[in-house]
Amino acid sequence: MKLLKYALVTLFSLGLMSCGSSGGGDDTDKVAPGITITAPTADQTIAPGETVSASFTATDNEALKSYIVSVDFFQAVGMTVKTTPVEFTFDKSGTLSGTSQVVTFNMDLPADAKEGKYKMLVKVTDASTEANEKTEERTFIIQK
């Protein structure tokens, strides 16, 4: 009878261990998403008052979750103007789905935008429990 109990306990334990994930390791997604910025091009010059077309592709091996885009003044270039220019800033965020998604949007520059180099940061987060993130940057120039 003791041998039967021992055999049943052993079989039950083996059954529980085989119910776990295959491979015996942690299956959590540890791979950060990818970002490819396609517009604006690097150091593209745009005049104040124009519309900037922006675009990037986000990819992940499992699933995408969200993105944040921000643009801030980075460095003065060009000539000094007599009016008080406005430093252009831009913020946008949204949700992503699937394993690959193209995001396209426009940024309207004010007519009195401060001339100089601006940095656009794109941050993408995937849907894993690890909350993997990747940030890419692109600079463009506002100049008459």
Automatic annotation (TrEMBL):
Keyword Repeat: no
Alphabetical UniProt keywords: Signal
Stretches of the chain forming a coiled coil according to its record: none
Pfam families named in the record: DUF4625
Xref: PROSITE patterns: PROKAR_LIPOPROTEIN
Signal sequence range: 1-23
Matches recorded under InterPro entries: DUF4625 (IPR027829), Ig-like_fold (IPR013783)
Name the record gives this protein: DUF4625 domain-containing protein
Source organism: Paralabilibaculum antarcticum
